[in-house]
Amino acid sequence: MQTNLMTALLATREGKEADAILRSCVHCGFCSATCPTYQIQGDELDSPRGRIYQIKRVLEGGKASKNTQLHLDRCLTCLNCETTCPSGVKYNRLLDIGRQIVDEQVKRSLFERLVRLLLRKILPYSARVKPLMGVARLFRPLMPNSIKRKIPKAQKIEVVSLGSHSRKMIMLEGCVQDIMIPATNAKAKILFDKMGIEIISVKNETCCGSLSHHFSEVEETKVFMKKNIDAWWPHIESGAEALLVSASGCGKMLKEYGALLIDDSEYASKAKKVSEICRDPCEIIQAEDIAQFTKVTQKRITFHSPCTLQHGLKLGGKIESLLLAAGFDLIPVEDAHLCCGSAGTYSILQAKMSKQLLTRKLTQLEKHKPELIVTANIGCQMHLNSQSQVPVIHWLELFS
Length: 400
Description:
Blueprint: H1 7-10, H2 13-24, H3 30-33, H4 36-41, H5 48-59, H6 66-73, H7 80-84, H8 91-105, H9 110-122, H10 126-138, H11 145-148, E1 167-171, H12 177-180, H13 183-194, E2 197-201, H14 210-214, H15 218-237, E3 243-244, H16 248-254, H17 257-260, H18 268-277, E4 278-279, H19 281-285, E5 300-303, H20 307-312, H21 318-325, E6 329-330, H22 346-349, H23 351-365, E7 372-375, H24 378-385, E8 392-394
Parallel strand pairs: 1-2, 1-3, 3-4, 5-6, 5-7, 7-8
Helix pairs in contact: 2-8, 5-8, 6-8
């Protein structure tokens, strides 16, 4: 693709990066065939190729419009297009750069700004989410079913004495996960204890920064990342061999720490190390005989592979292999590469599109009447549970 980016922009790291990404695109359109929003909308502007052209126009000096912003907002950042692309176009990074510039040019409505501000000031903070969730659960019985199903019931976690081991790994607790569905990490700690690995929970860690990052709040994202690095670093220096993240969405964000802080003289090398040792639990467990840690109670299950797991972390098929090795009857899922519509705050900000994607995804997941649906990301889990006729849990809850 021929480019003519603004001179001032080309003088920046982001401008040079965007120019290289644009030049790698060969207009083939393969990305459109696997883009969830294009499949629903049928509009080229709601395809990766269409969004690339819109971003290119803005980076070359064209004026962004509310319509440009809308089409970029509709992108799920599911990364399906990157998996499909034969040219290796780094679409997600180009979208980050494009969204930031468009948001600087196009002022959002007061309502949009208020909703985004509330999401930014509440969801990344456990101390703020916890009391709100307590109130929501208190009034849950009185709510309509459509809202009730979005509020997970409180889980009672059994206190289990865990051993001390020479192998140690840090586990990200998650700003929302530990309140909404604490059973995931609780079961994971028991499992890793049986594997001879001690899990370190770091109390002063915070949100991974993904929400702020997706809202183009660059400085706010850096604050979250640096706080986490400071919290984890003493344990990393002491020999923690991995940083485990059971939510694939957060895992994808941690993998980006090195790139996002590459220009920070104080944190660049530390951020790179964090990204290098970040692991999804399946990467560690795959070396074990998983059958010894489970007693199969649900035979027929379907696995929903989150976009961040298969397209972001490139771990498609890993968890499915573990489930088969453990003795589960894993039902194949048609169009397993497509997004469920959760995508962080997408289900709130793009509710109509998100619901269409959810309905389509559940049709495939429930098609062969499984006893259970399992996934690997809290956002997907809660989103699927809001409409599913079958219980949806994190795959780690199957093992203990």
